[in-house]
Amino acid sequence: GYCINLVLETMKTYSSEDGLTEEALVTKLRTCRHHHLFLHSSLRHNSSGTCRWGEFGEGGLLWGECTARHFEWFEGNPVTDLLAKVKELYGLDGEVTFRNVTITSENRPRPLTLGTATQIGAIPTEGIPCLLKVLLPPNCAGLPVYYIRDLLLNPPAYEIASTIQATCKLMSNVTCSIPDFTCVSSAKLVKLLELREANHIEFCRIKNVVDELLLMTKNSELSEILKLLLDPTWVATGLKIDFETLIDECEWTSNKIGEMISLDGESDQKISSSSIVPDDFFEDMESSWKGRVKKVHIGEEFAAVERAAEALTLAVSEAFLPIITRIRATTAPLGGPKGEILYVLIDEICRGTETAKGTCIAGSIVETLDKIGCLGIVSTHLNGIFSLPLKAKNTMFKAMGTVYVDGQTKPTWKLMDGICRESLAFETAKREGMPETIIQRAEELYDSVYAKEVVPAENDSKLQNMCSYASFNGSNVSLQSNSGEKDSERSRPTDRMELLQKEVETAVTMICQRKLIELYKKEKTSELTEIHCVPIGAREQPPPSTVGASCVYVMLRPDKKLYVGQSDDLEGRVRTHRSKDGMQKANFLYFTVPGKSLACQLETLLINQLPNQ
């Protein structure tokens, strides 16, 4: 029969298959993606040197397949000389070695003939439906499809085939969530790593793959599947490895990448910002590299960029901005008749009226002056103006500087950058000789009424988080728990999400189980169904056992809102939810029920009662 040698330059591997019929060889040529095709001279010359290719091969399957492609003839050893030719083509060093990944063909069925492969649609053929499109789900594409096609065209040995069947049976019966099973081309990754062109995206994909394998080891159902997959993987890759070594290498790889690459959720690499430099500028300059490598490894570079951003802001504010401001002022519609620069000095703006409305009038005046680009100074004790959503791009806030001397706060009479929400009213009154009893009573009244209003803006979010509320809109539930503890005692975001998930699971189980017991007592259900919630992590998907089953699910959105729904296609619904902006890492809880009617009842029940728990 015929022999075919396959060389994978990126992986530095080669394999040989012999005893092939002409049809089997043509089938492999049609389904194998290759850059170069070499034909050995033995195809056209016999031992006596007589040409056979044209005499006997013309018109045959192999002749027709090869003449339709670009190929080269070569002589010599079919393995060593072919490897030498590959090294020459790709400029590889002569000392580079290729690993033999040939799997013995002993006890292995013969490959499919060309006629059979085309008739069943395993090979794309006009007029015949593609078998793989019928067998596999619509969302299945890429590497998994090629693997299944190779199994059909080149059936493995009985032992491997039985292992694959056993794996499929176990997978179809698992009750836990399963990993996303990230598919990455190993040849592409090896090429990028060799050329040192792999970026953080490729490293994150590698980490995803090994983390998914490690996740499988932590579950008894998935761990058994992982062990069964080792032998089929050996047949597909030619790399035999034991289970313990695989896990150890995965842990090492995951830890090493985690030490270097900045993963999602790490917020120590924010884009620089400035009140006078457009954010788009910093975004263009820094977004291509920030958030890729952990900051600890490039601390000097970060410091240099921060210094450059500060220097740029200073240069714009001191040199460029005044020029632009004056140019705008000369053309301002409220300027003088000759276009001279307009200066405005306002002391205690809008102080002579009711505070709230006066504050808003003052804010509107500041916006107008800012818009026309005039120069000026506005002083005020209306602290509420700093909380207004002012549209003022050129306005700068200054505060009176103070020092603390001998137990007293004294003004320095120097302007400082920033906002001051306090005043020296009590200190000034004391200095002017007002009786101490009056000042003390004034301080008591101030603390009882106004002290809460001067909490710094950065604490607003903390105060908001301390509130406990539950609001509902449609099928979206917003939950927020009490968090009166100190910042140092707060748990990490993942822990808070886990706590929320447990609370939601408890509430869902209680609400739905109570309803099912009620229906059972009224004899509206033939048997009492027990609610068993199954979590789906951020990079997990529902098990195959949910296909066609009626499921009720709750989506735990990253913004701590909940979405309640039901579906007979849970995997598709999860994929749809995660395709929306910001929902890629949403977690889910689901449980199955007998029938869509019951699922709809429980969905409505959760929508109405879950916010009250």
From TrEMBL:
Keywords linked to the UniProt accession: ATP-binding, DNA-binding, Nucleotide-binding
InterPro entries named in the record: DNA_mismatch_repair_MutS_C, GIY-YIG_endonuc, GIY-YIG_endonuc_sf, MtDNA_mismatch_repair_MutS, P-loop_NTPase
GO MF term list: ATP binding; mismatched DNA binding
GO biological process: mismatch repair
Domain of life per record: Eukaryota
Stretches assigned to the GIY-YIG domain: 548-613
Gene3D superfamilies registered for this protein in UniProt: P-loop containing nucleotide triphosphate hydrolases
Residues annotated as transmembrane: none
Keyword Nucleotide-binding part of the UniProt annotation: yes
PROSITE patterns (UniProt xref): GIY_YIG
The protein's name in its UniProt record: DNA mismatch repair protein
UniProt organism field: Morus alba
